[in-house]
Known about the structure:
Blueprint: H1 4-18, H2 21-25, E1 33-38, H3 44-49, E2 57-63, H4 66-73, E3 80-86, E4 99-103, H5 111-121, E5 126-139, H6 145-156, E6 159-160, E7 163-164, H7 170-180, E8 185-189, E9 192-194, H8 199-216, H9 223-234, E10 239-249
Parallel strand pairs: 1-2, 1-4, 2-3, 4-5
Antiparallel strand pairs: 5-10, 6-7, 8-10, 9-10
Amino acid sequence: MSSFADWLALREPADAAARSAELAGRLDLRPPLVIHDLGSGTGSMVRWLAPRLPGPQHWVLHDRDAALLDRAVATMPAGITVETRVGDLTEADLSGASLVTASALLDMLTAEEVDAVVAACAGRPTLLTLSVIGQVEISPADPLDAAVAAAFDAHQRRPVGGRRLLGPDAAGAAAAGFRRRGIPVATRSTPWRLGPDRAALAAEWLAGWIAAAREQRPDLDLGSYEVRRLADARAGRLEITVGHQDLLAGQIY
């Protein structure tokens, strides 16, 4: 994979298929809407959600990477207005938001950062999608799958620059943070299902999964495992389920 933007493009169809349309359908918003999207990347959440919401809509896209935001602006759906803000997502100014959204973000944050996001979102509807939850199933199974999965989960919880990431614990921490504040929460299981029709994504995801496990557990001998698993993924011989969770807070019907 040549760039992070290319990875985002590869995963976008699987993300769109996995997100909970049912939770999105619970949003009862009165236009005009101002929607703040945290960790927007190249804008996949906007492309998925904007057609499901009434207009007019103004989207505020937040990310640390200005180049990704430039790509997002160039591919926005018709009929909406957009602005971009570059900076720390946990310190984003959400004033005036009708709705706050994020996708595949929480697991890259610490406990303190997740709580800061929850505190900033409190008082307005919030839709947080595709948080990884540490559930992976690969069929046919391999004896090393469990060890690789455990190493990957540990890698997701690793310390980075003095920050300890929450990884698969982040979705639960966010839900608990909203509930502590008296805000109702609904969650839905939203797994990726990667079969022969998504062989390219399955192979790319699997390569990253194994690389992270190897970094966490260099004692694991994954050479032959990696060769055979990637060959099977590229040939469409694997069925991979990667667990995620969507969360809707503040607007439960």
